[in-house]
Amino acid sequence: MHANDKDEDLARVLKTGYDVPPPSERFTKDLLERLRGELRQSERRRPARRPVLKAVADHWRWAAAAAVILGVGIGLAVVANRGGDTSPRTDVPGISPAVPASTPDGTPQGRLVPLEIKLPRNQIECTPRNIKMSPYIEKPSHAPRPPLMVPEGTVNVSRGKPVTASDSEPIIGELKLVTDGDKESTDGGYVELGPGKQWIQIDLSQSMALYAIVLWHYHAEARVYHDVILQVADDPDFIENVRTVYNNDYDNSCGLGLGKDMEYIEDYRGRLIPLGGTHARYVRLYSRANTSNDQNHYVEVEVFGTPEGTGEKRVPLKVDLPKSVLPR
Amino acid sequence: MTDAELIQAIRAGDETAVEALYHRYLPSVWRYACSQLAGNVHAAEDVTSETFLAAVRQVGALRPEGGSVAAWLVGIARHKIGDLRRRRGREKLSDADPAESGLACPDAPDGPAAMETAETRASVREVMDALADDERLTLEWKYVDGLSVREIALRLGRTEKAVEAVLYRARNAFRTAFEHVRPTA
Q1: Dihedral of the CA atoms B77, B82, B87, B88 (nearest 10)?
Q2: pLDDT digits (tens, 9 = 90+) for B1-25
Q3: For residue B51, which of A88, A94, A267, B77 is within the disulfide window of CB 3.0 to 4.6 Å?
Q4: Where do you find CATH 1.10.1740.10 in chain B?
């Protein structure tokens, strides 16, 4: 058959397949009006930026010079503070995949048991698409995940806990889906945040020893989420005592420090990140789009720790000092 | 104007750019919603409205270089359909009455011919759903909307060669899969 005949045949089949009624003229007009209104509202929501942007545009040379001076100044201050380490991360000591749970000083505490993680069903039935393997992506493995040993009494402490996000209006779903216990990537089982860098944050209600987090972005399709960064902190604004416990932002495109962890392909097992018994109340997770689209998704996040009264308790260190023999 | 230029203009508050984007992609989003919801026009209207409104709200965060705008819009529509199904308690949206949904057509064939058309339609949708967004959209634009390779390239911000390569892959993938699912006489 001639190529043109084949094309005509294909066009005929596709037109039959997509023989749907057109949208009504009234609907088309109404929606366009609503979109114009939405755009005007969006403009009104960001009035403060315009004068600044305009000023920068008018005096761009001065602005560029000021930015360079400010950037160099901040850079020097950070380097001086951190002894050459320009990364803002504060790693938790002793954390590596599948290590026994331990207290913050690295000493295993109490009886250790394997962490039990209830997995959703495997929904991936095809080979990964659109994933160009790079040296930064972990080689996929179907081997069983080694058990993570945690102190007895470690439980899921994030179930039903409040979730906030950088995107207050998710494109799909609600933030409460992140901690609702449903790990299936089916319709209605996940929340979708807007494009670009986004974060979600879980308030665990109180500070406690945390031993692991298991994270499911979306597992109905094999894909890689970029710039997955996990931080824990004691305050909701993540200003004090922020600890970055996982970071695979290998080019620092999120600006939170160069990540040393690997990117990985999502599957039904989720990503297990050991936390080594670090104490914190707030957990924040960043991501920046994925290999399939620009959005960010969360099916479920489980944080495992020991709620108050069941784990080790931190007390101030008491040291008896000898009497000073130096003259006052 | 390429998609990237349109997005920049919308970010700058240009209403004519919103209009251009809307007219450019309404057919694709509408077709997707309508076919996924089996012609339930009211549900398709809801999904299409929510998709474009969400897109205008989120356009500030979209990276034009991050992928095709059409695929982004269809991605939003896909999730909106999921939302709709969840809100309506997973009722069978596809069971809309054809007369009420607008699918009823006075010239539609009856009997075996109608059945064959319905089967072809179902097969096409099944195969198209399995294609990557860019492949599916490129096929639609070329063979349903009648766009030229040049026009498609302009939309996607790619070269004509690249579009021809996508079309080649998409055609082969469609034909192979369609042979497997098409109803046999």
Answers
A1: 100
A2: 778 888 888 888 888 999 999 999 9
A3: B77
A4: 1-102
Q: Which of A19, A23, A172 sits opposite B80 (nearest CB)?
A: A172
Distance, CA of B2 to CA of A310 (rounded, Å)? 60
Residue A282, pLDDT > 80, answer yes
- Global confidence as pTM: 0.47
Inter-residue contact B33 to B48 (CB < 8 Å): yes
State the ipTM, two decimals. Answer: 0.78
Rounded Cα gap, residues B51 and B77, in angstroms: 5
CATH number of B1-102: 1.10.1740.10
Q: CATH 1.10.10.10 residue ranges in chain B? A: 109-185
Q: What share of chain A is helix, strand, coil (3-state, %, to 5)?
A: 25, 25, 55
- Locate tokens 């108050």: which residue? A308
Cβ atoms of A283 and A158 within 8 Å: the answer is yes
A302, A214 contact by CB (below 8 A): yes
Q: Which CATH number fits domain A112-124+148-306: 2.60.40.10, 3.40.50.970, 2.60.120.260, 3.40.50.1240?
A: 2.60.120.260
Q: Which residue among B10, B26, B31 places its CB closest to the CB of A39?
A: B10
Distance from CA of A33 to the nearest CA of B (A): 9
Share of chain A above pLDDT 70, in %: 73
Report the CATH fold assignment for B109-185.
Answer: Arc Repressor Mutant, subunit A (1.10.10)
User: Which of A69-83, A245-259, B107-121 is modeled with the greatest confidence?
Assistant: A245-259
Strands (E), chain B: none
- In Å, the largest CA–CA distance within chain A is 107
